[in-house]
Design goal:
The complex is a heterodimer of chains A (859) and B (108).
Chain A (H helix, E strand, L loop, with lengths): L10 H10 L2 H67 L1 H29 L11 E8 L8 E3 L2 E2 L2 H8 L3 E9 L4 E3 L2 E3 L4 E4 L2 H5 L4 E3 L11 E5 H8 L8 E4 L4 E8 L12 E4 L2 H6 L2 H4 L4 E9 L5 H14 L9 E6 H4 L12 H30 L5 H10 L3 H38 L11 H26 L4 H5 L11 H33 L9 E5 L7 H9 L4 E7 L9 E2 L15 E6 L3 H5 L3 E4 L13 E5 H7 L8 E2 L2 E7 L14 E5 L6 E6 L4 H15 L7 E3 H8 L1 H46 L3 H35 L10 H28 L2 H5 L3
Parallel strand pairs in A: 7-12, 9-11, 18-23, 20-22
Antiparallel strand pairs in A: 1-2, 1-13, 1-14, 3-13, 4-7, 4-13, 5-6, 5-10, 8-11, 9-12, 10-11, 15-24, 15-25, 16-24, 17-18, 19-22, 20-23, 21-22
Helix pairs in contact in A: 1-2, 2-13, 3-11, 3-13, 3-22, 11-14, 11-16, 11-22, 13-14, 16-22, 16-23, 16-24, 22-23, 22-24, 23-24
Chain B lengths: L5 H13 L5 H12 L5 H14 L2 E8 L7 E7 L1 H28 L1
Antiparallel strand pairs in B: 1-2
Chain lengths: 859, 108
Amino acid sequence: MSNIDKNRIPEWLHSVLKNILRYRERETLLGDFEEMYSRIHNENGEGRANLWYLYHILRLIPAIIYNTIYWSFIMFKKYFIVSLRNMKRQKAYTFINFFSLSIGLTSAILAFMFVRHELSYDTFHPDVDNTYRIILEHPVRFNQYRTIFAATPAPMGPDMLDEFPEVVNFSRYENGPGLIKIGNNNYDDVNFYYADPGFLEIFNFPLITGDPKTVLSEPFSVIITQEAAGKYFGGENPVGKIIKTNNDYEFTVTGILGDLPENTYFDFEFLTPFITIGRIRGENSLTDWGNISYELFIQLQNGFEPAELEEKLPEFKDNHGYGGNTKDYFMLQKITDVHLIDEAFEIGGNERIKSLFLYSAIAFFIMLIACFNYMNLSTAKFSFRIKEIGIRKVVGAKRAELIRQFLGESILLTMIAFVLSVFLVKLLLPLFNAHIEREIRFIWLFEPGLFVILIALAIFTGIAAGFYPAFYLSSFKPATVLKGSFSGAKTKSVSRNILVVIQYVISIILIISTLVVYDQLNFIQERDPGYERNQIITLRLRDRGIQREAFNNELRKNPDILDITMSSGIPSIMGGANLPSWEGQTEDEKETLFNRLNINDNFLDFYGIKIVKGRNFIRDRETDEAREYIINEAAVKTIGWDDPIGKEFQNGTVVGIVQDFNFLSMKIKVRPLGISLIGDSYSYLSIKITPENVTETLEYIENTWKQFSPNYPFAYSFIDDSLDRMYRTERKLGMSFTACAMIAILIASLGLFGLTSFTIEHKIKEIGIRKVIGATVPGIVYMLSKDFSKLVLVSAFAAFPAAWFIMDQWLQGFAYRTEIGLGIFITAALLAQLIALISVGMQTIKTALMNPVKSLRYE
Amino acid sequence: MKTLTRNEELLLLSILNLGEDAYLVSIQDYYSKTINKQIALTTIYLPLSRLENRGMISSDLGEATAVRGGRRKRIYKLTEEGLEALTKHKMISDTLWTNYLKIGAKIK
């Protein structure tokens, strides 16, 4: 004991242990260590003593771990019980929070699963990172849109494989005939595709039966997916059977493929070797660099950048005598992007990526609203917990401990809400799937990776929502509370108001968006497209051999059939485009894309399309020398003629001008159009029928069809249906917005409901007194509601510019659009105000009507 | 009935024997001396914690000494439960031994 000073543990060793131990053991254990150290130091010197010390610190670790866990568990149990008790005490608030968080989590989970699913498309192929599709950017003067196609000349694939060592494999992919005949049965709309043998190597679609090396090597062999086998061959083994296509070509089944997973861009039922095209369309078609219409996929060697290859392509294509525009630019597109990007014809948009963003953003905002509810209600009702907090602080709880407790509460509530949201997801998944047109399975939720992420999300939400209240609640001084005079409640609070405003801004933006979408859809419905839409059926004619005249005459015999016409395009399908030449065309006007239409002489009359100058075609003047054309007003404007009649157009003469009419989506401006009289090719029959006896008329048409074209399935469509289908995406958008707006405003209003009840609880005595003095019921209702109404009004004003901007952007995608009228804003604001007033009003009215005696009785 | 491991039993007995002065270091000394093997502080630290968590022993803060750098000791004491567990343990051993000795005497 005498060499006390010399035997003290060196400071640095000391601090190690000090920091590891929990508060409780710190002092005593350190003391024990000091004693031992001193003893050893005496007996064996400092060196040994230090060694001993270090060694035993390590040995303490299991004990420390055990103690930490044990005590954490005890604390956890305690907090858990306290949290539950608190929740029971404030059932209403807890319920609101719980419900909001649940809904928020549900939407987050659904959005997450959707995004994950979309991003997973085609990720299961063996060499995904090196698999690309070749796409083509066509610099055509065309309403300033980039025109991107997935089209290449047939020989490009094999030539690329030959000339570029970095290309290790390729496969072309082309849509084949849609009509097949098996035995005596005809099938329409079949997914029949041509592909190279490389297809099975590049893409992971395993063969169940058949040798992958040989199934796609012989022309006129075909492999079939299992699902298709079931559909077309019943239970029989399809291998060896014959499939005929519409020109009586025979294909033999050589193998069976496993069913395609849902998350792939590909959608084939039959695959046949690409070289078969050579047999069908002539061997020249396989070497023709002028026909650019086949999809091409390639596999690059590892380590090569797609851009490097892209740079070599312009020269490459020119060397091979590329038949398209020299300014055409080929690019490589990642296979995983193919599903996500709407390339192809028309507008090069990123529809799918946009919708991914949209769903994620909306889910995020709904979660935000839910979290705000939690923050608001927790901080508001903190006055009820003041006593508890005060006492705990006095007894010695540190602020950190309190924060931990409150965070624990919010996390606990969120986790319980998570459990409910899992159930909600199960419930809503079918509906959601129907809406997004995918098949997301509930089971996927429980994949370990995803599940962990979702739980982490829930915990994170709990922390995010509870973090502010935790800090707020633990912050004030106990002395103020226990003195008794502190009422604690602030009924007005700037931050709370801000949160409410944000909630309502989000909700109002969603409401406005919904209204605008429906407004636009309505506009599309109402707007005159320039032709007749009602009571017209269209038939697709694929049978080249059909006797048109006889068929038409037979149809006309039915009195319910008013008129028939034929054309190469119908509303929603404008087949055909070209780059015409005309009188006075300049060099850079050479590449202007015009739509093309071949019609019958009664077509314009049939559809009620006005001829504004010149005349219609005359039936017997269809000689090749004097080709006649009718063009639309847009064409005239594009060309720039003052007097178009008689001018030369595409080796013919312009004989008439029609008013612009829009066969395609309103998203696209009417394009310049060149119309000529039908030669031998046309694909569509349009039939006008009376509104009575529609079913019988359809039957009659079908029967007549079967007489004239028994080999081809009968498929018809009503024009108004076809037109409606064009706007499917927009309609779905409207539905999404509606649902989300409803959810958002529901949660926000619940929050408001909670806040109101809190305000009322606090002002109950004041109300009682006012009533006694003589305030009227409406007066009191006004007094209680006015603050909240003001908030909603402010929210509306804040929401307007943002909503206008967003929806204006969306409307830019339409060539023909409605105005975002003042009416929409007013409606949205009024709607929000109304809903808010209902949530607030229910309680305020009840309170205002209450007998003041009740509230004043207990002092 | 809570069972005791050998270690725990010995620790409890040591504490019992040490009476007023049963703290970590003294327990370690006594225990080591009794079983004739040097036991480290950290070896008994965890078992003692466990015993306390199970309610077999209780602890109080004791005096501080200079050699401990002025820090107080944690004095351990058996609880009712601990004593009970210990006695039961002994009773079982005793019964088994007595049985053996009776029989064993015969066999021998």
